[in-house]
From TrEMBL:
Protein name: Molybdopterin or thiamine biosynthesis adenylyltransferase
InterPro entries linked: ThiF/MoeB/HesA (IPR045886), ThiF_NAD_FAD-bd (IPR000594), Ubiquitin-activating_enz (IPR035985)
Superkingdom of this protein's organism: Bacteria
Pfam families xrefs: ThiF (PF00899)
BP terms from Gene Ontology: cyclic threonylcarbamoyladenosine biosynthetic process
Keyword Glycoprotein listed: no
Record-level Gene Ontology MF annotations: nucleotidyltransferase activity; tRNA threonylcarbamoyladenosine dehydratase; ubiquitin-like modifier activating enzyme activity
Record's keyword terms, sorted: Nucleotidyltransferase, Transferase
Cross-referenced Gene3D superfamilies: NAD(P)-binding Rossmann-like Domain (3.40.50.720)
Length: 269
């Protein structure tokens, strides 16, 4: 019996359970990624994505599984972005961050726990996402992003996600994405406030929005638990739309968020 025959025999109404995939992994020596791809390529939807089904087709789920996305920064924004993309089913994630967890990260960073203080953020991302969705390949890059290594870190990626807290590095990321001709989904947070936009090749949204100063105003205004969760979710939605060519991305416009007054304003760029 081959693995596809097994999966077809176990499927019900085009959906194959995680238990059946686990048997395929064990019996036929497949990785979880290979087992899920085999199912999706043959029109079978892994049950873990069942609740995606009303908004995403099986073909679109396959496209996500074949996609590669880089998340630059694995802290407040990046931890949430990584987890949401993994749960969505984006098959290849590059996690870039040179830092380790410190105690002040515990109030808002999804990947941070007291037991992981001193642990590299990218190592925590690999461990966490391996439990959340073993079919997702996470490539850790425990280094600071720069124009010198940017093209290597983003090689093969369909797009990049900005989860940084440094304006100069953010602008370097935008420049590297422009050179590689890939979109950049940008998010920024500070206290009650945040913003999201998506820059496509040829656009200059970020360069027009920022001057080359140090960190943003996050260190002045702080960050609670909910601001990064919200902004990261909006970034994940933008990633999904761009990868699938669906909907209207935030191109040449920035969604500015004020959670204190509960106002969402669109700024045209």
């Amino acid at each position: 019996m081959n693995p596809l025959f097994w999966l077809n025999a176990q499927a019900r109404d085009g959906i194959v359970s995680g238990a059946a995939l686990a048997v395929a992994v064990e019996r036929f020596g497949l990785s979880w990624a290979e087992a899920e791809l085999l199912a999706l390529e043959n029109g079978l939807l892994p049950a873990r994505y069942q609740r995606n089904q009303k908004m995403l087709s099986t073909a679109e789920q396959l496209r996500l599984a074949r996609s590669r996305v880089a998340v630059i920064g694995c802290g407040g924004l990046g931890g949430y972005v990584l987890e949401e993309l993994a749960r969505l089913g984006v098959g290849h994630l590059v996690a870039v961050d040179p830092d380790v967890f410190e105690e002040h990260n515990l109030n808002r960073q999804l990947l941070a726990t007291p037991a992981l203080l001193g642990t590299a953020k990218v190592e925590a991302a690999v461990a966490r996402l391996g439990v959340v969705n073993p079919a997702v390949t996470v490539l850790p890059a425990p280094e600071a992003f720069s124009v010198a290594n940017g093209a290597v870190l983003l090689a093969g990626c369909a797009l990049a996600v900005d989860a940084l807290d440094s304006i100069p590095v953010r602008l370097e990321l935008a420049a590297v994405c422009a050179g590689l001709e890939i979109p950049l989904v940008h998010g920024a947070i500070a206290g009650w406030y945040g913003q999201v936009t998506t820059q496509f090749p040829g656009d200059t949204t970020l360069a027009d929005s920022y001057t080359r100063s140090g960190t943003g105003i996050e260190k002045e205004l702080g960050n609670p638990s909910f601001t990064p969760a919200l902004v990261a979710s909006l970034e994940a939605a933008e990633v999904c739309k761009v990868l699938l060519g669906r909907g209207t991305p935030l191109r040449r416009r920035t969604l500015v968020i004020d959670l204190l007054e509960m106002e969402f304003v669109e700024r045209l760029d």
